Amino acid sequence: MERDAADTVSMLSKVEESQLEQHRLKMKRADLLAVGFQSSGAENQEFASLVMCATAGIFAVSVHYGFFGAFAFSYWLYRGSTKAVRIQRNSAEVLQETIDRMRELEQDNVEHLAALRLRAAAWAGGGSEADTQPE
Fold first, then answer.
1. Phi, psi (5° rounding) for residue 127?
2. Rounded to two decimals, what is the model's pTM?
3. Please, which residues have CB within 8 angstroms of residue 91's CB and are 6 or more apart in sequence?
4. Confidence band, pLDDT 50/70/90 cuts, at residue 127
5. Domain boundaries, the chain
6. Positive or negative CA dihedral for 97, 98, 100, 105?
7. What is the per-residue pLDDT across 62-93, written as a single tens digit (0 to 9) for each?
8. Which residues, at least 6 apart from 84, have a Cβ–Cβ distance to it below 8 Å?
9. d(CA 28, CA 13)
10. Which of 72, 76, 71, 77 minimizes the C-alpha distance to 56?
11. What is the DSSP track for the chain?
12. pLDDT of residue 20
């Protein structure tokens, strides 16, 4: 009986810890969903970087040293303008991991609660959990 009680307390603490972690994951999910795509200013900056890259291509055709300067500037401009997109993509990956973990915790909770209900039904009937287990 003491072992059953200890197991029950252990399962209840696992369920409680799981619920706390689920709450933290829900808050994290909300933060990750708030990460947006790039702004209209960043989109304009990205377009400007493509124009600069085309200009660099003109210099490259004529084998001019201006190509390196124009290309470096356009690449720098492009990386800066697409920073928000990279942040959003990273956020989407972390969001998927968070959702997967939430599903795992929910499944664990279902299993633990089913075991606790089985144990409670056995105790209500005056027996132990071993009496209700199929052989």
1. -110, -165
2. 0.57
3. 32, 35
4. low
5. 1-36+99-127
6. positive
7. 777 777 777 888 888 888 888 878 888 888 89
8. 36, 37, 38, 39, 42
9. 23
10. 71
11. -HHHHHHHHHHHHHHHHHHHHHHHHHHHHHHHHT-----HHHHHHHHHHHHHHHHHHHHHHTT-THHHHHHHHHHHHHHHHTHHHHHHHHHHHHHHHHHHHHHHHHHHHHHHHHHHHHHHHHHHTTS-HHHHS--
12. 92
Pull the structure tokens for residue 125: 């009937």
Amino acid, single-letter form, for residue 12: L
The confidence score (pLDDT) of residue 102 equals 92
* Tokens (6 digits) for 10: 């252990």
- Residue 119: both structure tokens together: 């144990």
